Amino acid sequence: MNDRERYLATMSFQHADRYPYYELGIWGQTYERWLREGLKEEELQGDWFRGEVKFAHLDKREFIKLDMGPIPGFEKTIEETDRYIIFIDRWGQKHRGLKEGTARGTRLSMDTYMDFFVKNRSDFLEMKKHFDPYEPTRYPQNWNELKKKWQNRDYPLYLTENCGFGGLYWNLRQMFGTENLSYAFFDQASLIHEILDFMVEFFIKTTEKALKEVEVDAFIFNEDFAYKSGPLISPKIYREFFLPRHREIVEFLRKHGVKVIELDSDGNTEDLIPLLIEAGINCHFPLEAAAGMDPVKIRKKYGKNLALMGGIDKRELAKDKKAIEKEVRRKILPMLKEGGYIPTVDHTVPPDVPLENFLYYLELKRKLVEGY
User: Gene3D superfamilies in the record, alphabetically (predicted)?
Assistant: First the structure.
């Protein structure tokens, strides 16, 4: 099977020669560590999602690079010292970030978010001006070239990059901030409904050209609407605000032949899974182990209603080979019979994982499926 056939078969619980070999990436500090431990720059360079990192021998995927953010953005540096930088990002979020420990574009600590662009309807109407769906620069300059390249491809093609559109909750959070948004569902409900309706309309108008001109296999809702103990929104909030809009986008995508709709969220999303399935979402990742998201447990509960990706505990990869083997065997072997599962680490790999351990994990994943 080629990479495209294998991915589509796995996601639809049909026979595949093996599961796809995917991983989500590594921290910048992990990159630096693995260089010290013997990898060469050229072996580590490239996009993990696209399977470009040579040493890992991952399967190929491709993503349509549409610019779904505000154009123009709101970027601005406010203050910078030797220790930190205060800046406004593309979405109008004001950050304070430490410069110490920066490696490969990532910081050891999260930024402090100081302020957000949208506080009321007037702010939203101003931001809305930056979301013209027909802005020409939303599409790559070489669009016609890319269309030809993708006609006879043997790998899956996704609509937008991972985090290229974000998602409905994701984009609301970028506008309001998590705390302000949590209040806004109650204090400014009509505004949230208005923004969500606009976001769905914007998504459909922006992507329709791509979906008409290219055969697309998959799309990712990046939402990140959960934490370790559960969702950041209740099932009631999801049903009122998100379910009808997720469903509208899913139906639009299905009408254009998109077979796989993935939902990406960290944390424990279990209370929302029945509603995600109701919305038409048919794959969920990365199944964060520290939040109790166990692929074997979720499979027993939801069967073939939901394909799964991820769930391999990154904390176990930092231990020894015995711990890695126990983790990988416990989660992969029960899932092999039914399919519908792609094992990956449950997020990007942190710098406490030695290169030797990660290579052993990759080798073990291959051995298990080949010997099944």
Answer: 3.20.20.210
Three-state DSSP class for residue 98: strand
54's tokens:
């040579």
Q: Structurally, how many domains does the chain consist of?
A: 2
Residue 80: which domain range?
A: 75-116
In a shared domain, residues 63 and 112? no
DSSP 214: S
Cα–Cα distances in angstroms (integers) from residue 333 to residues 41, 90, 265, 360, in the given order: 34, 44, 24, 17
pLDDT by 10s per residue, the chain, length 372 = 999 999 999 999 999 999 999 999 999 999 999 999 999 999 999 999 999 999 999 999 999 999 999 999 999 999 999 899 999 999 999 999 988 766 666 666 689 999 999 999 999 999 999 999 999 999 999 999 999 999 999 999 999 999 999 899 999 999 999 999 999 999 999 999 999 999 999 999 999 999 999 999 999 999 999 999 999 999 999 999 999 999 999 999 999 999 999 999 999 999 999 999 999 999 999 999 999 999 999 999 999 999 999 999 999 999 999 999 999 999 999 999 889 999 999 999 999 999 999 999 999 999 998 755
Burial environment of residue 300 by CB neighbours within 10 A (0 to 12, 13 to 18, 19 or more): exposed
Same structural domain, 51 and 106: no
Residues 6+ apart with CB under 8 A from 37: 354, 355, 356
Rounded to a whole number of angstroms, the distance between the first and last alpha carbons of the chain is 17
Same domain, 267 and 295: yes
Same domain, 307 and 352: yes
Same domain? For 348 and 254 the reply is yes
Non-local CB neighbours of 208 within 8 Å, separated by 6+ positions: 256
From residue 263, how far is each of 55, 202, 218, 222, 321 by CA, in Å? Answer: 28, 19, 11, 6, 31
Q: Which residue has the tokens 């639809």?
A: 12
Say yes or no: 304 and 355 in one domain: yes
pTM: 0.95
Question: Residue 143 class from Cβ within 10 Å (0-12 exposed, 13-18 middle, 19+ buried)?
Answer: middle
Same domain for 186 and 335, yes or no, is yes
Query: Which CATH number belongs to the domain containing residue 201 in this structure?
Result: 3.20.20.210
